[in-house]
Amino acid sequence: MKRAVFVIALLAACTRAPAPPASQPAAAPAQAPAPSAQPASWRVERDDAGGYRATSYGVSAGHDIFRVFCGTIVKRVTLQSAHTLPNDQRTTMTIHTATQTLAFPARSENIPAGPLVYAQIEGGDPRLTALAARQERFTVEVEGAALDIPWDESIATTLAACR
Asked: Is residue 14 in some structural domain?
């Protein structure tokens, strides 16, 4: 009997206690893209038959830092920034213009061309006037990571197509 109690005690001492339940990892903070050795510039796209106009700021097509897209038929604006977040996460895109701070509900998406955060806004939204107004620069912020973007006339032209 002593031997059976000893074996049970020995087995109990050798077994591991169950691990505490794993906690959910905290969402990683947004990251801005790393600076590129190539200078970024604005590019304009227009497809009247396809119903869109767009202007993109980045080093090359497909490597956009910021993009303003206008669906000219549906009169809807999509703002995209090259912030990195976990896929399909709800967030806020805040744009600091020379005159106003604009906050738009946004979502993240990780696509083969690279991660992005996008906000969709009705073309007639009066907040877009502050982004369309001539200014030296504006800042796009998502979850504390900020991108400083030079303003370009193509932004105003693209937004005007959606009004």
From this structure: no
Residue 4 lies in a domain: no
pLDDT mean over 121-136: 98
Q: How many domains does the chain have?
A: 1
pLDDT tier at 155, thresholds 50, 70, 90: very high
pLDDT band at 28 (very low <50, low <70, confident <90, very high): low
Element (H, E) at 156: helix 153-160
CA distance 131 to 127: 8
- pLDDT above 90 for 7: no
Query: Is 49 contained in some domain?
Result: yes
Long-range contacts of 30-33 (CB under 8 A, 24+ apart): 30/83, 30/84, 30/85, 30/91, 30/117, 30/142, 30/143, 30/144, 30/145, 31/83, 31/84, 31/145, 32/82, 32/83, 32/145, 32/146, 32/147, 33/65, 33/82, 33/83, 33/84, 33/147
> Which residue type is seen at 43?
R
